[in-house]
């Protein structure tokens, strides 16, 4: 299998200096690419001088995560794309278990490795942990991370299992499926575009796997940290876009109504914490969603999965039933 490791970069020369060496060292099976979103720092001169064997794809502007990859991958030929954040440290033999799963399971289209916290390596990392799911109302959570509760890695998720979504921090996908799905949705810009793509992939009959035999470490928040209101805005807005595109038609309106109530509660919670910028971010996300509803409704396909969730409400489970970990 021909595998391309593709790192999306925007003004991230310091991250490239820190994390690219591990990828170069431990990826002999792959061709390495940096897809650059029109950086204005010295990322490109640095790559040319220190990593001449890493191929560079130059995007014309900062397209964000979704369109940035869509533009770059038009120029990269491979059987498997490994989309890797610039703040990921990989480990020895990280690619082999993934390749083996793709080889033996032709219906598996996407795979995620175990993602641990670079800053605290005994714990899972927020963005993906041990594989993702969503609840009935579209709120994402992971094995190893529910909302802000992060589990210690005790081997409880040392397995290979089917999941609903794989983290964009380290995201393996068959190139044929990526192009069949027309890649990420450009209108998401960043955040939850990988969940939307995973949902569309499942709706088309493929499966998504987590494989703990491959481990990477993720800094997380290196480009947009958790406390940034823009991240709140993108997460709430894009989650709503995702529901409109992928929910079964007969459940769309009641689910969206329930989601409005829950988002309202989240907004009130931010007010009670004095986080007014995050409150306004949710409000802004909803106005953007209402203005774009018809655009995203037109993106619906004839195929919508009815069994897309494991939990009716992860919000209720977490805050009312004290379900702080995945297995509880």
By CATH reckoning, the class of the largest domain would read: Alpha Beta
Please write the string of helix (H) and strand (E) elements.
EHEHEHEEHEEEEEEEEHHEHHHH
**Large-scale geometry:** globular
Strand content: 15-25%
Structural class by SSE content = alpha/beta
**Approximate helicity band:** 25-40%
Number of strands: 14
Please give the largest β-sheet: 10 strands, mixed
Question: What ranges have pLDDT less than 50 throughout 5 or more consecutive residues?
Answer: none
Please, what is the average pLDDT? 95
Cα(first) to Cα(last) distance is 39 Å
Characterise this structure.
- The protein is an alpha/beta fold.
- The chain has two domains: 3-218, Spore Coat Polysaccharide Biosynthesis Protein SpsA, Chain A (Alpha-Beta Complex); 229-301, no CATH class.
- The chain has ten helices and 14 strands.
- The strands form three sheets. Strands 1, 2, 3, 4, 5, 6, 7, 12, 13 and 14 form a ten-stranded mixed beta sheet that branches. A two-stranded antiparallel ribbon has the order 8-9. Strands 10-11 form a two-stranded antiparallel sheet.
- Helix 6 runs parallel beside helix 7 and helix 7 runs antiparallel to helix 8 (249-272).
- The protein starts with a strand and ends in a 9-residue tail after the last helix.
- The relative contact order is 0.14.
- The mean pLDDT is 95.
Topology (SSEs and partners):
Blueprint: E1 3-9, H1 13-26, E2 30-36, H2 43-50, E3 55-58, H3 64-73, E4 80-84, E5 88-90, H4 96-104, E6 108-117, E7 120-124, E8 132-134, E9 140-142, E10 145-146, E11 149-150, E12 160-162, E13 170-174, H5 175-180, H6 193-203, E14 207-218, H7 229-246, H8 249-272, H9 276-297, H10 314-319
Parallel strand pairs: 1-2, 1-4, 2-3, 6-14
Antiparallel strand pairs: 4-13, 5-14, 6-7, 6-13, 8-9, 10-11, 12-14
Helix pairs in contact: 6-7, 7-8, 7-9, 8-9
């Amino acid at each position: 299998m021909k595998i391309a490791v593709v790192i999306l970069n925007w003004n991230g020369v310091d991250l490239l200096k820190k994390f690219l060496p591990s990828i170069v060292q431990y990826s002999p099976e792959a061709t390495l690419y940096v897809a650059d979103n029109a950086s204005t720092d010295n990322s490109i001169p640095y790559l040319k001088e220190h990593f001449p064997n890493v191929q560079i794809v130059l995007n014309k502007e900062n397209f964000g995560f979704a369109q940035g990859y869509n533009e770059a991958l038009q120029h990269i030929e491979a059987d498997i794309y490994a989309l890797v954040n610039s703040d990921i440290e990989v480990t020895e033999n990280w690619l082999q278990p993934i390749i083996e799963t793709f080889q033996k399971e032709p219906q598996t289209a996407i795979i995620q490795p175990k993602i641990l916290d670079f800053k605290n390596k005994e714990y899972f990392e927020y963005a993906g942990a041990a594989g993702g799911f969503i609840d009935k109302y579209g709120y994402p959570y992971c094995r190893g991370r529910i909302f802000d509760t992060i589990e210690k890695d005790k081997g409880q998720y040392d397995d290979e299992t089917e999941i609903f979504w794989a983290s964009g921090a380290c995201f393996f996908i068959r190139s044929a499926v990526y192009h069949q799905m027309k890649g990420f949705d450009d209108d998401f810009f960043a955040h939850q575009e990988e969940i939307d793509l995973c949902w569309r992939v499942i709706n088309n009959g493929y499966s998504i796997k987590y494989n703990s035999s491959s481990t990477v470490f993720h800094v997380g928040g290196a480009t947009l940290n958790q406390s940034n209101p823009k991240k709140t805005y993108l997460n709430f807005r894009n989650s709503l876009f995702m529901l409109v595109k992928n929910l079964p038609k007969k459940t769309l309106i009641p689910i969206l109504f329930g989601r409005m109530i829950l988002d309202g509660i989240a907004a009130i919670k931010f007010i009670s914490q004095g986080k007014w910028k995050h409150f306004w971010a949710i409000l802004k996300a909803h106005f953007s969603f209402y203005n774009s509803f018809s655009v995203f409704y037109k993106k619906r396909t004839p195929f919508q999965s009815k069994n897309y969730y494991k939990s009716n409400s992860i919000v209720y489970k977490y805050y009312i039933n004290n379900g702080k970990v995945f297995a509880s």
